[in-house]
């Protein structure tokens, strides 16, 4: 156990890949190793790259890695992919996405399947980020699966969220307002060489101007890029750096760390508590009667849940 943790702290990528696989499969051994690694985490700058399908996130990310490496920063990537309906594994392999970086020891790329988890992330994204953090990567990028407005979960997992759009989206920019526009720290208009790019910038700027906030709050920049040839990538990395500096100077960097850890802790408590509760209920007649009444619609799900919680509270 200690040997595996030591290998990961030394940056062993094979050991890290094995651990992430154990965590994806919810193996107790993996959790024990992660417990040993946890005191060595909390140092990485964690970025989220999100946006609707087809905006070029993966191509943009490949150039971002190059620019971060030119600045002598080690980069870890968690690329969340759709799940195979047969194997449950990621449909897109990391070598297909960012092939040229696979031989760079300063880069570690891990594709993870959503496995039915909503919100644009894999259920074990947070665990994978902790592993990369413990390995000493300076920057960790989470690329979401690309399901559009439902990807707001990424904002709870990172320090800085970049939302990518492109010309020709039309009404989709309006649809983003209730979701992605609310969580973005940086906005990227990719394929900016296409007609309509300036119109998208104007739409985004208009919507961002409608966001309320104090004069001292961060004003999200809008960066135009052409990911296929790397245009605008330097400006985007500069924007990431500027936002990090803003977070550190205002104390919000530590605040976001605390919030991330609290949400992770809360998720684990909810999962463990639910498992423990239902494991102990199966043989209770009152519980079986409650489920029967729910199935036959003699009681609604809300009332059934309230009844169950009240019963648990009485026993605590």
Describe this structure in words.
The protein has 316 residues and is of the alpha/beta class. The protein has 3 domains: 1-39, no CATH class; 41-250, P-loop containing nucleotide triphosphate hydrolases (Rossmann fold, 3-Layer(aba) Sandwich); 265-315. It is built from 13 helices and 7 strands. The chain has helices at residues 2-9, 13-24, 28-37, 57-70, 94-98, 125-134, 171-176, 180-183, 197-209, 233-250, 252-279, 285-295, 301-315, and strands at residues 45-50, 75-81, 107-113, 139-143, 160-165, 186-189, 222-224. Strands 3-2-4-1-5-6-7 form a 7-stranded parallel sheet, with helices on both faces. The chain starts with a helix and ends with a helix. 37% of the residues are buried. Mean pLDDT is 85; it is low at 83-91 and 115-120.
């Amino acid at each position: 156990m200690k040997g595996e943790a030591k290998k990961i702290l030394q940056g062993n990528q094979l050991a890290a890949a094995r651990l992430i696989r154990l965590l994806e499969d919810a193996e107790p051994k993996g959790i024990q190793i992660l417990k040993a690694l946890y005191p060595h985490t909390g140092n990485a700058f964690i970025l989220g790259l999100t946006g609707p399908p087809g905006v070029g996130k993966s191509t943009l990310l490949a150039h971002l890695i190059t620019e971060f490496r030119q600045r002598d920063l080690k980069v870890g990537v968690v690329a969340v992919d759709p799940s195979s309906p047969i194997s449950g594994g990621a449909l897109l392999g990391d070598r297909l996405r960012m092939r040229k970086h696979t031989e760079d020891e300063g880069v570690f790329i891990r594709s993870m399947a959503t496995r039915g988890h909503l919100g644009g992330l894999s259920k074990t994204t947070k665990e994978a980020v902790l592993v990369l953090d413990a390995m000493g990567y300076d920057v960790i990028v989470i690329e979401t699966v690309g399901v559009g407005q439902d990807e707001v979960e990424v904002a709870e997992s990172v320090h800085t969220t970049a939302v990518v759009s492109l010309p020709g989206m039309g009404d989709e920019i309006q649809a983003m307002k209730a979701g992605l526009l609310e969580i973005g720290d940086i906005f990227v208009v990719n394929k900016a060489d296409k007609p309509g790019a300036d119109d998208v910038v104007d739409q985004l700027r208009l919507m961002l101007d409608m966001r309320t906030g104090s004069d001292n709050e961060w004003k999200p920049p809008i960066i135009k890029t052409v990911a296929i040839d790397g245009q605008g990538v330097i400006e985007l990395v500069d924007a990431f750096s500027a936002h990090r500096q803003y977070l550190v100077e205002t104390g919000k960097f530590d605040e976001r760390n605390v919030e991330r850890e609290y949400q992770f802790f809360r998720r684990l408590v909810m999962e463990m508590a639910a498992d423990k509760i239902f494991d102990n209920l199966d043989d209770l007649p009152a519980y079986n009667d409650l489920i029967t009444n729910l199935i036959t619609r003699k009681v609604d799900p809300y009332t059934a849940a309230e009844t169950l919680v009240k019963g648990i509270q009485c026993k605590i």
